[in-house]
Design brief:
Blueprint (H helix, E strand, L loop, with lengths): L32 E2 L6 E2 L6 E5 L4 E7 L1 H19 L17 H31 L2 H5 L5 H5 L3 E6 L5 H9 L17 E6 L4 E4 H5 L14 H4 L2 E6 L8 E4 L7 H5 L5 H11 L2 E7 L7 H9 L7 E6 L6 H18 L8 E3 L15 H16 L1 H32 L7 H10 L1 H12 L9 H8 L12 H32 L27 E2 L14 E7 L6 E7 L19 E2 L9 H13 L9 E2 H10 L4 H11 L6 E2 L1 H17 L8 E2 L9
Parallel strand pairs: 5-9, 5-10, 6-8, 10-11, 11-12, 16-19
Antiparallel strand pairs: 1-2, 3-4, 6-9, 7-8, 13-15, 14-15, 17-18
């Protein structure tokens, strides 16, 4: 971890043949260098920096890749954001406080590192297969660096003057560049509202060629669209968590639709595929669904899980009218959206003005709906990492099937002449070729691309000009799908479990710790006298005084071995191997890594163990069951004990116990290699510095 806060995710890449930065193949002139921070292979151009990596065992500067350098800089920047948010001056009445909680910022920091690892896996093991067989050209789906780095997207769709721009301003709590609000059709372009260092508007043509932004593939819609697209940048806390895309109001006239100069439905589909949430707004006074809105909703049909409906300006009608309007809206949507699921509809008045007198009777309802909507948006960053992993897995499977299809068709081509005639014949019977490839390689029909898209792509290329398929490319792609990506998913799930534990106490409303006198007697834990079978954690005679007892489960059908431990008071490391281990200290950050919420939670657990003495401490045998429950190997637990027993008395006080729980939680998420050899200053409890 060291100076970089959250460790960069390690990716096993000993079998990589391509640079994880630029996807160039390694050769005699382009050597392979391993980044000592993330483990991936890079060419010299993409790994020109040197940094110390103390948590990997490199105290002196060693070669690291440009991606890790950028990740370290980003982490430091996010840490400064966290430091700025460390005070309690955030107004809980503002929407920004939902997105600027310290736990939320830390989660975004961790998700960003997951995305860096996903980017390295894609560049080194999936993208080379795509490039060899023109995957992006076939499906118009080029994946750029900005697609990995982008925050979750919220797409707003609706007819003109339903309050799309006002809704964005309502959440941002300030104006943004390019904002136009009025009763007439005002927003005549697509506007991406994103985080920036200063207030400015970036034209669409410039945004589409910027590799750091997720808009590089918008160029295929032509200049007519890019002239109607812009990026609005401003500084706002919410935009650190997600960004918004405002769309032109959907019109009802055919002439206005044709005069746009670009295909509106195709552009909306492009944004919908990449959006994490799609919000469709309706005005309580205009429930008619025009033909273009109907076509747009049909485009969104395959993304029903992302759609949320907002019935805006609901404060302008009374309760009786609101019920009628709500029923009419659901009836209208039922004719267009053919879904067995009920779409969530939020009611309210989402702008910065007070409620109208007519809607005062529904004030509590609107407040509850606002809370639900904010909570829904707040949850987007939590699921963004897993959603993008899921999208990459689908893309990798499609790329593999695409390569196998091209290879199969190429093997059917004649050697000398008649290529054009044979290609037309193969394209005409693609359904038969699909079945052959599916049977030959044991592939699921659902993994195959759309036959129309594949046929259209073949019309732009000659099959005989594709290279022969390298089995090595397919094998490396399979390694990414069967080893690297599952490891990332396990890491994401571990982070979610850790965050759920930390999220029980918000920094705005921390739970009150119990005082020692509130515990009349120690509250025994169910596993205080039990541990998992010895073979899980110990080898040989390392485990002390073990006796096995047979116990029947509650239904009497199964038996299980349970090792019971004879608890004895000891002043030694409960995981000691008989050797002494030195511990040292390193000057680092000044703030303690254990948060207030975690300290409170683990202080409660500490007093439940029944500490004794002055100051109150718990012995190694009292702590041992909790540490064994973590599932970490004995060697790692021994190392953790030596680190956290700062006083050297063979027992832990409440601060040392909280530090032990933090290190164990971190090791469960990031692996035992994340356990530091020496305690950085930021790990030292404040009273022991």
């Amino acid at each position: 971890m060291g100076d970089f806060g959250v460790p960069v995710v390690w990716v096993e890449d000993s079998d990589g043949d391509f640079c994880a930065g630029c996807s160039s193949p390694f050769s005699f002139t382009r050597g392979r260098h391993m980044c000592r921070m993330c483990g991936s292979g890079f060419c010299g151009k993409c790994s020109s920096s040197k940094r110390p990596v103390p948590w990997r065992g490199y105290a002196e500067p060693v070669r690291v890749c440009d991606m890790c350098v950028q990740a370290a800089d980003r982490t430091k920047r996010l840490q400064r954001v966290r430091a700025a948010l460390g005070n309690d001056s955030i107004d809980p009445e503002k929407h920004s406080h939902y997105f600027t909680d310290m736990t939320e910022v830390k989660r975004r920091e961790q998700n960003a590192n997951i995305m860096e690892a996903l980017k390295r896996i894609y560049n080194a093991k999936i993208r080379p297969l795509e490039q060899a067989f023109k995957f992006a050209e076939f499906y118009n789906s080029d994946l750029s660096e900005g697609d990995f780095d982008a925050r979750p997207m919220v797409l707003l769709v609706g007819q003109y003057s339903v309050g799309k721009t006002s809704f964005i301003r309502y959440l941002l709590e300030r104006d943004f560049p390019g904002q136009r609000i009025g009763p007439e059709p005002t927003t005549d372009r697509f506007v991406a509202v994103m985080q920036g260092k200063s207030d400015r508007s970036v034209p669409g043509n410039a945004a589409a060629v910027d590799p750091r932004r997720p808009f590089s593939s918008l160029g295929r819609f032509g200049t007519a669209f890019l002239n109607r697209f812009e990026v609005s940048e401003l500084k706002c806390p919410i935009l650190d968590a997600l960004y918004f895309v405002d769309t032109p109001g959907i019109l009802s006239g055919e002439k206005q639709r044709l005069d746009r100069g670009y295909n509106f439905e195709e552009v909306v589909q492009w944004f919908a595929e990449r959006a994490d949430r799609i919000i469709v707004l309706f005005d309580a006074h205009k429930l008619d669904i025009s033909d273009e809105l109907k076509r747009t909703l049909q485009v969104l049909k395959s993304h029903e899980d992302k759609i949320r409906i907002i019935l805006n300006k609901a404060d302008l009608i009374d309760s009786q009218q609101l019920m009628r309007v709500y029923g009419a809206l659901m009836w209208s949507l039922g004719k267009v959206v053919k879904s067995p699921e009920v779409i969530r509809v939020f009611l309210g008045s989402f702008w910065d003005q007070p409620l109208a007198l007519t809607g005062k009777t529904n004030e509590k309802l609107f407040a509850a709906e606002k809370e639900d909507l904010i909570s829904d948006l707040r949850g987007l960053p939590h699921n963004a990492a897993l959603r993008r992993v899921n999208e990459l897995v689908k893309r990798a499977r499609l790329a593999k099937v695409h390569a196998l299809l091209i290879s199969h068709l190429r093997s059917s081509m004649p050697y000398l002449w008649g290529h054009e005639k044979k290609q037309k014949k193969l394209v005409g019977r693609l359904d038969q070729e699909y079945r052959k490839v599916s049977k030959l390689h044991d592939l699921a029909p659902g993994d195959f691309p759309s036959m129309d898209k594949f046929r259209a792509g073949l019309e732009r290329f000659e099959i005989s000009e594709f290279p022969s398929l390298s089995q090595r490319l397919v094998d490396v792609c399979d390694v990414a799908l069967t080893r690297d990506v599952p490891n990332l998913i396990l890491r994401i799930q571990g982070l979610e479990e850790k965050q759920e534990g930390q999220g029980q106490g918000s920094r705005l409303n921390p739970p009150t710790p119990k005082a020692p006198h509130e515990y009349s007697s120690p509250n025994p834990r169910p596993l205080d006298n039990m541990a998992s079978p010895a073979t899980n954690f110990f080898d040989g005679d390392v485990s002390p005084m073990k006796s096995a007892s047979r116990q029947l489960t509650h239904d009497g059908d199964l038996e299980e071995e349970v090792a019971t431990w004879n608890i004895q008071e000891s002043t030694e490391n409960p995981f000691s191997d008989g050797f002494e281990h030195d511990s040292g200290f390193e000057v680092g950050q000044d703030d303690w890594v254990v948060s207030v919420a975690d300290k409170t939670k683990w202080t409660n657990s500490f007093y439940e163990l029944g500490p004794s003495g002055h100051p109150p401490t718990v012995t190694g045998q009292q702590v041992r069951p909790i540490m064994v429950d973590s599932g970490l190997p004995t060697q790692a637990l021994r190392k953790i004990w030596d680190l956290v027993d700062i006083s050297g008395r063979g027992a832990l006080d409440d601060e040392e116990f909280a530090l032990a729980m933090y290190v164990i939680s971190d090791a469960k998420v990031n692996g035992v290699e994340s356990i530091p050899d020496e305690l950085p200053r930021s790990f030292l409890p404040p009273s022991k510095r």
